[in-house]
Design goal:
Helix content is 48%, strand content 14%. The chain has 372 residues and is α+β, with helices and mostly antiparallel strands. It folds into 2 domains: 4-254, 2-Layer Sandwich (Creatine Kinase, Chain A, domain 2), CATH 3.30.590.10; 261-363, no CATH class. It has an 8-stranded antiparallel β-sheet. It starts with a helix and ends in a 7-residue tail after the last helix.
C-alpha cells in the first residue's frame, strides 16, 4: 500500500487539468452514498459496530481493480495536519476528518477516485475529473459501484432505492457537482442573479469546500440537492445543462468586460500580479483572490496560457495544512502568511508582467465599421 508522503508528493490528475478545457469549469465530481445491509448506520452505531462494519468493507474496497497500490489508512493513524491536507485536496470531507475510531480512507494513486469508510454513511465514494466531465466521472464510479455490489450486501429498498443516513441522499445516492471559476460574473456584479437562478431550479451553490463554506478565489460549486425519485440520467442531464449555461454567462461576461472596461480588467490583473510577485506576508483569502485574477489573465491572453496551470497548483499548495506539511512543523497563522508569500513569489519568479496591450489588439485588428 502507498504511503501518505508518496500520495501527496504528486498533484492529483484533476488538479493539473491535463488535456481538459478547465478555464471556467475546473473539475467535475460524482459522489455515491451506500450503506451495508444489516449494519447500524455510522451515526447511530456503537464503537464496536463501526469497527465491525469497517472490517467488512475495507477488504472489499482495497480489492477493487482501481485500487492496486492505493493509499489505505484508518483516520486514527493520521495526524490532524495529514487529515486536513486530505480535506484541502477534496479527498475526504471535513466531517470525515472529525470522526474518530472506525473510519478510514482508501484513495487511488492518481487521486481521481477516493472512498470514505464510515463517514455519514458506511461508504461515500467519489470520482473527480478535470474540466466538464460529469459523464466520465459517473462511468468510472458506476463500474466501482457494480464491483462493490458483488462483494458486499448493500442496504437497498425496491421503492426507496439506496438507503442513506440523510433523506436527501435516498434513491440513487448520487451527488453530482462541478467547481466553476467565475471572476467575470463577480467583477460585473452579475453573480447574485446567476446563482439565484441556479438555486431556484433546485440546485445548490456552495463555496470551495462544500456545505457551509464561503466562496474563495471566485470559485463556486454547483450540485444537485436531492436524489429521490430521479434517475441518474435525469440528475446528470439537468446539471450538465445548467453548468454549461453558467459557463456561457461567464464567457460572455469576460468578453464584455474586455470590450467595455479594458482599463479596469488590466488594472485588476496588473495589481494581482504586482502583489503576488512582491508580497512578503499574505493570508489565504487575499492570495486566492489574486490568484483568481492571474488565472483570468492567463485565459484572456494577458499572461502565458500555462499561468492557469501554475495558479491551479498554487491554489492547493498555499492552503494552511499543505503549508504546514511543506515546512514539517506546526506554524502560527503569521508564519504561514510569510511562507505562503515566499512560495508564491518563488513560483511566479519567471512570470513576466502582464501584456496589457493585448486588451487593445482586438480593437486595432477590427475593420473600421464605417468602411463596411
Amino acid at each position: 500500500m502507498m504511503r501518505f508522503t508518496t500520495l501527496i508528493k504528486n498533484p492529483a490528475d484533476w488538479m493539473t487539468g491535463e488535456g481538459a478545457d478547465n478555464a471556467i469549469v475546473l473539475t467535475s465530481r460524482i459522489r455515491l452514498a451506500r450503506n451495508l445491509r444489516g449494519e447500524s448506520f455510522p451515526g447511530w452505531a456503537k464503537k464496536e459496530e463501526r469497527r465491525h462494519a469497517l472490517e467488512v468493507m475495507r477488504p472489499a474496497v482495497e480489492g477493487l481493480s482501481v485500487m492496486k497500490d492505493a493509499f489505505s489508512q484508518e483516520l486514527d493513524d493520521l495526524t490532524s495536519v495529514q487529515k486536513q491536507v486530505l480535506v484541502e485536496r477534496h479527498l475526504i470531507s471535513r466531517e470525515h476528518a472529525a470522526r474518530g475510531e472506525g473510519s478510514a480512507a482508501v484513495i487511488e494513486r492518481r487521486q481521481s477516485i477516493a472512498l470514505m469508510l464510515n463517514e455519514e454513511d458506511h461508504l461515500r465514494m467519489q470520482a473527480i475529473r478535470p474540466g466538464m466531465s460529469l459523464r466520465g466521472a459517473f462511468e468510472s464510479l458506476s463500474a466501482i459501484d457494480d464491483e462493490l455490489e458483488n462483494a458486499l450486501e448493500l442496504a437497498f429498498d425496491h421503492e426507496l432505492g439506496y438507503l442513506t443516513t440523510c433523506p436527501t441522499n435516498l434513491g440513487t445516492g448520487l451527488r453530482a457537482s462541478a467547481m466553476l471559476h467565475l471572476p467575470a460574473l463577480v467583477l460585473s456584479d452579475q453573480i447574485g442573479q446567476v446563482l439565484q437562478a441556479v438555486n431556484k431550479i433546485g440546485l445548490a451553490v456552495r463555496g470551495l469546500y462544500g456545505e457551509g463554506t464561503e466562496s474563495l478565489g471566485n470559485l463556486f460549486q454547483i450540485s444537485n440537492q436531492s436524489t429521490l425519485g430521479e434517475s441518474e440520467e435525469t440528475i446528470l442531464r439537468r446539471l450538465e445543462r445548467v453548468i454549461s449555461q453558467v459557463a456561457t454567462h461567464e464567457r460572455n461576461a469576460r468578453d464584455k468586460l474586455l470590450e467595455d472596461d479594458p482599463a479596469m480588467v488590466s488594472d485588476k490583473i496588473g495589481r494581482a500580479y504586482g502583489v503576488l510577485r512582491h508580497a512578503w506576508i499574505i493570508d489565504s483569502k487575499e492570495a486566492l483572490t489574486h490568484l483568481s485574477l492571474l488565472r483570468l489573465g492567463g485565459d484572456l491572453g494577458f499572461l502565458p496560457q500555462d499561468t492557469v496551470k501554475t495558479c491551479d497548483a498554487l491554489l492547493m499548495d498555499i492552503q494552511p495544512a499543505h503549508l504546514q506539511l511543506h515546512s514539517g512543523r506546526k506554524m502560527t497563522p503569521e508564519e504561514r502568511d510569510s511562507i505562503r508569500a515566499e512560495i508564491v513569489r518563488g513560483r511566479l519568479q519567471s512570470l513576466e508582467a502582464p501584456d496589457i496591450r493585448s486588451t487593445r489588439k482586438k480593437d486595432e485588428s477590427d475593420p473600421d465599421p464605417e468602411i463596411l
